[in-house]
Amino acid sequence: MKRIVLAVIVVVLAFGVSILAQQKSGSAEQELIDLENGWGAAQVQDKLDLAFLDRILADDYVQSNWDGTSATKAQILASLKSKEDVITYSAGDDYKVRVYGDAAVVTGRWTGKETNKGKDISGQYRWTDTWIKKAGRWQCVASHNSKIS
């Protein structure tokens, strides 16, 4: 009888831990999607939120672009602030989130209207963002985007 009770307790505990792990992962996934959506909105020129971008991009953040160029956090913020890079429309979708403890990879599609250094680069892009949880909050450390032809 004691063995049956012990077995039931072990099964219940294992099930409970499994449920908690799924809920924790699910909340991390939603939090990262919310951050991605906030990122897109914060770049739009009429609602430009450089403070938000400064918070979510790690100091050593690097972005690899579809045209072979790369940019640091400081370069991206300066480009948006100076209006060298102007985004007037931004929409993200098709998110896939993979959480690995305090690291995550998020992929998706971005559709936007953007002018960079006077050149229209509007269109759709596929992107991959790598996030790390530091001091209890998510920060993006690397991005790569590819233009959809």
Summarize the structure in words.
This protein has 149 residues and is an alpha+beta fold. The protein has a single domain, classed as Roll (Nuclear Transport Factor 2, Chain: A), CATH 3.10.450.50. The protein is built from three helices and seven strands. Strands 1, 2, 3, 4, 5, 6 and 7 form a seven-stranded mixed β-sheet that branches. The protein is elongated and about 80 Å long. The termini are far apart.
Task: Map the helices and strands.
Elements: H1 2-42, H2 50-56, E1 57-64, E2 70-72, H3 73-81, E3 85-100, E4 103-116, E5 119-120, E6 123-134, E7 137-147
Parallel strand pairs: 1-7
Antiparallel strand pairs: 1-2, 3-4, 4-5, 4-6, 6-7
Helix pairs in contact: 1-2
Helix content: 25-40%
Shape: elongated
The name of the CATH architecture is: Roll
Average pLDDT reading: 89
Strand portion, in percent?
35-45%
Question: Treating each run of at least 4 consecutive H or I residues as one helix, how many helices?
Answer: 3
Which CATH C-level class is it? Answer: Alpha Beta
**Which blocks of ≥5 consecutive residues have pLDDT under 50?**
16-25
N-to-C series of helices and strands: HHEEHEEEEE
Q: Could you name the CATH topology?
A: Nuclear Transport Factor 2, Chain: A
End-to-end Cα distance, whole Å, is: 67 Å
How many distinct beta strands? 7
The helix-and-strand class reads alpha+beta
Tally of distinct domains: 1
Radius of gyration, taken over Cα atoms and rounded to an integer in Å = 20 Å
Strand count, sense and barrel status of the largest sheet are: 7 strands, mixed
